[in-house]
Design a protein that fits this description.
mainly beta, 8-stranded mixed β-sheet, 7-stranded mixed β-sheet, about 45% strand, elongated
Length: about 300
């Protein structure tokens, strides 16, 4: 097995990632006056425009958990962000109180190893908010809790020493936690961070790309990317023995960030360049990929 820990990070000028917990904004006094029964009216939005299957804020069937103290209530969000519940609604009685909110609301273990379709990929997009209720009408703004990981394989027969057939049969996977529990808006990884994450991928005119949601945290001295091509297997492992890795914090997956890995493969070398986008319009949008042929299973170049 050939390994490398050479990574260059180019910092984007889009600022620092917003925190995992987000703000709660009070709606207008007019909205409060229209709410005469003292039930709290919740409105939900996502901090960036791209989320879930439709790549808009909400599909309209998501369940959101809202917790105050030890009480958890189930709310449903519509496509316009309005929220409703069949439980007894939270009420405003003149005293502020803390809440947590998260989606998806599930007690099941969430599988991360198979993200080979658009739907499976966005099913792993975990959203959360925490704030203080201070009026009868409040707006929840949710943040992405996972790290959006993206790879691009840059390889040609002329420069790599591999045949077109070998390149077309290459496979790229991330390595990390294979499943999580999502409880009270907190990501709780299960098992060890050594599972193959099969990505949702597509082909452009001059490149192959793939992406997956992964658990944030430290991946120092742990294999992060695996490429299988021909009879060779390459791995990239961030290392604290590498000065550049330490300075650029390449062993840390940042929550809410889009971390992009450019893979340069030949029979003689495997090099990885990395760019991290932590805020701004490009953070979670796919505008550059709308015309790509998507849905190639397991990142296999078929």
């Amino acid at each position: 097995m050939k390994t490398t820990n050479i990574v260059t990070i180019q910092k984007c000028r889009l600022g620092i990632a917003v925190a995992a917990c987000v703000s709660l904004l009070s709606c207008s006094n007019e909205a409060d006056l229209q709410n005469t029964d003292d039930n709290v009216l919740f409105f939900a939005s996502v901090d960036t425009s791209n989320s879930r299957v439709t790549e808009s804020a909400w599909d309209g069937d998501e369940l959101i958990g809202i917790k105050s103290g030890e009480t958890v209530k189930t709310y449903k969000v519509a496509t316009d962000g309005t929220m409703s519940t069949e439980d007894t609604p939270f009420r405003w009685e003149g005293t502020a109180y803390e809440i947590k909110a998260w989606s998806p609301l599930t007690t099941e273990t969430i599988n991360l190893t198979d993200q080979t379709t658009d739907e499976k990929f966005f099913d792993c997009d975990l959203l959360a908010s925490s704030a203080k209720v201070e009026s009868k009408s409040v707006r929840l703004v949710f943040n992405h809790q996972m790290t959006r990981m993206w790879w691009e394989l840059q390889i040609t027969p002329e420069t790599s020493g591999y045949t077109t057939e070998e390149i077309n049969g290459a496979k790229v996977t991330f390595l990390g936690y294979g499943s999580v529990k999502f409880e009270d808006g907190e990501v709780k990884p299960q098992g060890d961070a050594n599972q193959e994450i099969h990505t949702f991928c597509w082909k452009g005119d001059y490149y192959w790309e793939g992406q997956a949601m992964m658990v944030p945290g430290e991946m120092w001295e742990k294999p992060l990317i695996r490429v299988k091509i021909g009879n060779d297997e390459f791995e990239y492992t961030p290392s604290k023995t590498n000065t550049n890795d330490v300075e650029k914090k390449t062993g840390i997956l940042v929550p809410g960030a889009w971390q992009r890995y450019y893979l340069h493969v030949s029979k003689k070398s495997f090099n990885v360049d990395m760019v991290t986008v932590t805020s701004g319009f490009e953070q979670w949008t796919d505008e550059g990929n709308k015309d790509s042929d998507k849905g190639l299973v397991d990142a296999e170049m078929q």
